[in-house]
Amino acid sequence: MLKAKDTARDWLTILKTATSACKGFISYQAAQKYEASIRKAPTTTTVSKWLTTWEQAMAEAIKYDIPEINAGRWLRDIARAMKPLSDALYVKFINAATNDAKSGPERYLEVSMKIREIIQTDVPKRTVMRGTAFAAEFDGEPAPDGDNCDNHDERKNTKSHKRARTTSAPNNVTKGKKRKISCKACGQPSHKLIRCYYAFPELRPLDFEPDEELIEKVARALEDGGLTKEVNTIRKERINNSNY
Fold first, then answer.
1. Model pLDDT for residues 116-168, shown as the tens digit of each residue
2. Are 149 and 198 in contact (CB under 8 A)?
3. φ/ψ (deg, to 5) at 234
4. 134 near 204, Cβ under 8 Å?
5. How far apart are CA 145 and CA 132, in angstroms?
6. In the chain, where are the structural domains located?
7. Half-sphere exposure for 149 (CA within 13 Å, toward CB)
């Protein structure tokens, strides 16, 4: 193909034409990379790395305009991938997929930022114990330090030791104090239903270790249609009040 009479520029042009892949092949490769990125759902420990791979695949998918990301399909794909980690994110992205103003694939970085914010992959461990920013202050009250289900037993034991070392207080000391309301789902006194990590798994921090007995207890409690309706209402209000 390279003739002696041709110039160096002609040679380079011929080589570029002869060795470059066709647009159809490049588009196919981009589609394959995108499909691979969303094929396996991430876990709480792998979600950050998973998002990086997904972002790279989305950038190429947009560059070559593959059909797999058009018409909100990319949002449906990311919703399915996030469902094991957060029901709230799943519902949020499915709803956005039907909204033309929010379904453009160029918003993929905004979506990945929201996922990192909710799942809290980049939040220091001490902050994680406060619960996610997605739910903080939702009920109009500041979340106290360590407000999570993981420290229920520790608080309970601390109270028990204090009672064992002190004599019973006079009746007039407790008068006027409000009775603390326990969580309607798990029955623990350290939080309200709206902050329960068992009724709302999407609020759990990365280092949260669920108690199997509490999981079963909440599952039985949710058999009550009234409580299930209240949980679903809280979840919908939380989603509607999010920024995305």
1. 888 764 444 433 334 444 443 333 344 444 444 444 444 445 444 444 454 44
2. yes
3. -60, -45
4. no
5. 13
6. 22-122, 132-141+180-244
7. 29
In a 10 Å sphere around its CB, with 0-12 CB exposed, 13-18 middle and 19+ buried, how is residue 175 labelled? exposed
From residue 144, alpha-carbon distances to 182, 185, 195, 217 in Å are: 16, 20, 11, 25
Dihedral sign for Cα atoms in the order 135, 141, 144, 148: negative
- For residue 9, the one-letter residue type is R
Distances (CA, A) of 14 to 25, 71, 86, 105, 110: 20, 39, 53, 36, 42
Q: How far apart are CA 122 and CA 145, in angstroms?
A: 19
Reduced 3-state DSSP string for 37-81: HHHCCCCCCCHHHHHHHHHHHHHHHHHCCCHHHCCCHHHHHHHHH
Query: Which spans in 180-224 are helix H?
Result: 212-221
Structure tokens at 31: 């589609």
* Angle (nearest 5°) at CA 238 between 236 and 244: 100
pLDDT digits (tens, 9 = 90+) for 39-69: 988 988 888 899 999 999 999 999 988 999 9
Residue 35 CB: number of other CB atoms within 10 A?
14
pTM of the model: 0.44
C-alpha separations of 134 from 63, 129, 200 in Å: 32, 13, 12
